[in-house]
Specification:
- It is a single chain.
- By secondary structure, this protein is of the alpha+beta class.
- The chain has helices at 8-11, 31-43, 46-54, 79-93, 109-120, 126-139, 141-148, 175-184, 191-206, 217-234, 245-248, 258-267; strands spanning 15-18, 56-60, 65-70, 73-78, 99-108, 151-152, 157-163, 252-257.
- It has a 4-stranded antiparallel β-sheet. A 4-stranded antiparallel β-sheet has the order 2-3-4-8.
- A hairpin with a 4-residue loop joins strand 6 and strand 7.
- Helix 5 packs across helix 6 (126-139).
- The longest helix is centred in the last third of the chain and has 18 residues, at 217-234.
- The radius of gyration is 20 Å and the shape is globular.
- The N and C termini lie far apart (49 Å).
């Protein structure tokens, strides 16, 4: 994202670590959240869910697609597209029960908001836009902390974010875009509409994106390690309901069935 937000490196150099604090599980009974969970269940695609829950990683095609095997079939999976739905699913089902990613140092909301305002809005009123973002998050910091573990301190800095997949951190270069979209593309007045829109924008923050062409080689290697050992395993074990939308997004494509290969070889 550094090509979109060239000022990002001057706004924050946050790293994160996992909080060791144990927090009691919360039994979420909010009607709005229960309704959103029902929506995800209605959107579930049984076959794709089984494939992703039980797949075996084969190898990378490129920085956004991988080969995976399920039973006798080989598939090409766009893990960038799938990761958005994975994180969205985790946000809705684990709400109030996430782990915590502690940002060190904390990320200053107004500085990040100003970066987004200059890049996405009219530079002439960037300060006004940044102030709106700063006020929106400041006014709602108790709610954001309670439901999403987004902790904001008294100076307006983000101290923690939700840990949706263990040992996985989002790309912090995307924080300005997240803050901007969460302020101006979320319905903050209706409870269910808020949770629906905010969870999608938060999922976009976590969704993986390929390294930029100019990134160092070790960055690309680290990215692939995260995909293979963090993101793809998080889809397994029955904890992810793959939505039918993945079909229209061409995010999972069957390439071959091994018995078909045998029949081809028999003809040769």
């Amino acid at each position: 994202m550094s090509d979109i937000f060239p000022e990002m490196s001057t706004a924050t150099t946050s790293r994160s670590y996992i909080s060791s604090q144990k927090e009691p599980l919360v039994d979420v009974r909010l009607t709005s959240i229960l309704n959103l969970r029902k929506e995800l269940k209605r959107q579930l695609h049984p076959e794709m869910t089984q494939i992703l829950n039980e797949h075996t990683f084969v190898g990378f095609v490129d920085d956004r697609r991988a080969l995976i095997q399920h039973q006798t079939r080989l598939y090409m999976a766009d893990f960038c597209k799938i990761s958005f739905h994975l994180f969205h699913h985790r946000i809705i089902f684990d709400i109030m029960n996430y782990g915590r990613l502690i940002l060190d140092p904390p990320a200053p909301i107004r500085d990040l908001a100003l970066v987004a305002a200059r890049e996405l809005g009219n530079p002439a009123n960037a300060d006004e836009i940044a102030d709106q973002i700063f006020v929106r998050f400041g006014d709602n910091r108790e709610m954001l902390e309670e439901y999403f573990h987004i902790q904001i301190n008294d100076t307006g800095c983000i101290e923690s974010l939700p840990m949706l997949v263990r040992d996985f951190s989002p790309d912090y270069d995307k924080l300005p875009l997240f803050l901007h979209n969460a302020t101006f593309s979320v319905n903050w007045d209706d409870e269910q509409q808020f949770f629906r829109s905010f969870s999608s924008i938060l999922a976009a923050l976590y969704a993986v994106e390929p390294p930029l062409p100019g990134d160092p080689q070790n960055s690309k290697e680290e990215y692939r390690m995260v995909i293979e050992h963090r993101v793809l395993p998080a889809m397994k074990g029955g904890s992810f309901w793959a939505p039918s939308l993945l079909l229209t997004e061409n995010a999972l494509i069957q390439l071959v069935d091994v018995p078909d290969l045998y029949r081809i070889f028999e003809r040769c």
